[in-house]
Amino acid sequence: MDDTGTIQIRPAETADAAVIARIHMTSRAAAMPYLPPQRRDHAQVARWIEESVLPACRTWVAVREGEVVGYAALDGDMLEHLYLRPDVRRRGIGTLLLDEVRRHSPHGLSLHVFQRNAEARAFYERHGFTVLDTDDGRRNMEKLPDMTLRWTPDGA
């Protein structure tokens, strides 16, 4: 369902760190209930966004009626994060963020996704990503089986 009429995508700013942290935390809790409980509080996650994610990644936010409702963070050609507020999922906003990231990744894009995250896997598959490899969880801090997906633009 496409309900993106009033969505704008813009570069994230330091002032967005607190709302990005809230989106990160609520989205993970809603979409991946199998994850271990979050050990960091909102202030700690906001500090991580401000001090680690924003300086290291090109980051964009999706804004609806002046309110940030999602974000995506790109490190090189690795999509590190794409999260939406749970109440705005399935409205085309994730696609808008992914399209912005792909515009900045002309040679292709990779990402890691938990094997159990069937909804995210289906989303990326619909957008042309294919499985590069799978892992037993050794490479992520949650220690859960994951996979690497890759999108390569036509002609690249």
Automatic annotation (TrEMBL):
Cross-referenced PANTHER family: AMINOALKYLPHOSPHONATE N-ACETYLTRANSFERASE-RELATED-RELATED
One Pfam family matching this protein: Acetyltransf_7
Residue stretches making up the N-acetyltransferase domain: 7-146
The name this protein goes by in its record: GNAT superfamily N-acetyltransferase
Gene3D superfamilies: 3.40.630.30
Cross-referenced PROSITE patterns: GNAT
Lineage of the species this protein comes from: Bacteria, Bacillati, Actinomycetota, Actinomycetes, Streptosporangiales
Residues passing through the membrane, by range: none
InterPro entries attached to this UniProt entry: Acyl_CoA_acyltransferase (IPR016181), Bact_Acetyltransf (IPR050832), GNAT_dom (IPR000182)
Keywords (A to Z) from UniProt: Acyltransferase, Transferase
GO terms for MF: acyltransferase activity, transferring groups other than amino-acyl groups
